[in-house]
Amino acid sequence: MKNNGRFQVSPERFRTIYQEVKEGSEPGLRFYILVAVSTLIAGLGLVTNSTAVVIGAMLVAPLMTPIFGMTLALIRGNTELLGRSIRAEVVGVVASVFMGFILGSLAPIIEATPEMLSRTEPNLFDLLVAVLAGFAGSYAMVDEKISPALPGVAIATAIVPPLANSGICFSLGAYAGGIGSFLLFFANFLSILLVASITFTVFGLARNFGTLSKKDIIKRFGIVVVSFFVVAVFLTHALFKIAWEKQIELKIHTLLSAEISAMPVTGMEKMMYEIHGDKLYVLANIHSSTIISPREVKRIENRMAESVGMSTELIIRSVMSRDISSAGSANKIVTNDLDGFFVSEKLHPKVKLTRAAEQIIREYTASQFGIVLLDVDVIEADEHPTIFASVLGIRKISGNEISILEESLQRALEKPHIRLMVRQVQFDLYSKNGMIRYQWAPLEYLLTTEQRKVIAKGLAYLEDHFIGHEDIFLENTNGSFVDGCYCFLLELTGKRVFSDEEVKVLEQKLSEETAGKVKIYAWSRPGIVAVSDGYAPYDEVTSDFFSKRAETYKEEAEKLIEKISNP
Fold it and tell me: Are residues 356 and 459 in the same domain?
């Protein structure tokens, strides 16, 4: 193939190439059927984000052969082949975009996929890939030792998928994306045409190319060359824009990562941003054990605006979650690195302090009855940090317990000035008999059936006993069995105290009723409402009063809410 220092194809190889290109550039039914089929395959691969399906479309697509036809026609001055190739390519491109439009119109729901998005914003790298692919395809065409399947892989890759994507985008009203996809096709088209022209000329496929005047060369290739450089300039600008946006993205990601790393049990799932006009919009999806306050979001937003140098609006979408390990909260969970590892040993000092404090407090509350640790936060002030622990319980945590915990924290953390403050949410337990005092309520599974029956009988007797009283009322009762004795706590309200003598008498009666040893504790509390016809407990008076206006209360409340909502 080398002759007199120049690469030349043999006359037999030239005739084979010319015949293949001529037949492949024929705008016939077979050609357009392959265009339609390859476009549909590419479109389905794009909307389903299937790279394998898109590659399948590349192997079927016939649109690269007419480009070679135009190349041969230009370098040889063959107007007949040029007209046939242009007609096949133009009609094929229109048909491909139209098939993509039909697919996008008929599909029920189409969401943007990475395969689609990657073809909507071409840049200079795409042009360089097209240039290399154009050389690979044209070289494979002239070198008979290379498999003829190579052009289909190297060039059709960048032909049909952008056209299918362009049609889909147009059908969805995404005109910018559609134009971007078509620009990607056009850049590849020009690259293949220009590079193939040079390759074919070097290998001697041009007829008397060396005798052509500059005017004839400009006439044949001027539009192609100018168009190529115009597209190159445009895509270079796009590349610089992408590089600038990547710098913005890096600044955003770096700042958010630094801020979130200082928040215990908080991590960033993903971040997206968009620039509209001269304003930056950022949405960060995070998981956290607490809700981030608007003030904190504003602080981060201001830092971000200063970093990127433009007005910024930050929205943080927080999902409540907590990662628990054997050592407490797993604050070291991060996004997978390139090795696939998801645990980081580098922790912010505040996070380290929070983790250590949480572990100490959690171990203590886990060993105590009726208290559960919700979360731990640290407020650092010089060398005197304060730890805030939020707990939930059916009993109050005592000052002595807080003192013990504080001393444990000071010793373990080696911070003698550390302080502990507890924010407690206390709740009550109720049964059909009223409030359950956990100190008095027995564990049901520890009682025998007979003991449960006796307690139930005693509670019923006590309730009946106080029905006839006019100056004292039974609000709540708790019964238990301790050391062979049935114990009952009576919560009484009224205008007087239930005396110890009355307790003795009631104990004797209840002991006879239940046939067991009984101990009564009467807790008298002022809490009676005087009305014209006597005395009544507050809850009873309130219930009776509300029942008289229950029918109109809902309507009144709705009117009030409507008035507040629409001043």
Answer: no
Q: Which of 468, 3, 467, 465 is nearest to 204 (CA)?
A: 3
Question: pLDDT per residue over 153-188, tens digit each?
Answer: 444 456 788 888 899 989 888 888 888 888 888 878
pLDDT digits (tens, 9 = 90+) for 394-432: 888 888 888 988 898 888 888 888 889 888 888 877 777
3-class SS string, 393-438: ECCCCCHHHHHHHHHHHHHHHCCCCCEEEEEEEECCEEECCEEECC
- 264: amino acid identity, one letter: P
Question: What's the pTM value of the predicted model, to 2 decimals?
Answer: 0.48
> pLDDT tier at 224 (50, 70, 90 boundaries)?
low
- Quote the pLDDT of residue 507: 92
Indicate if the pLDDT at residue 5 is higher than 60: no
| Domain containing residue 510 | 434-526
CATH number of the structural domain spanning residue 407: 3.30.300.20
What whole-number distance in Å separates Cα of residue 148 and Cα of residue 530? 104
Q: Per-residue pLDDT for 470 more than 50?
A: yes
Hey, what are 555's tokens? 């309507």
> Which among 503, 508, 509, 502 is positioned nearest to 489, based on CA atoms?
503
Query: Left (φ > 0), alpha (ψ -120 to 50) or beta: where does 322 sit?
Result: beta
- The DSSP symbol for 212 reads -
Tokens of 153: 């892989």
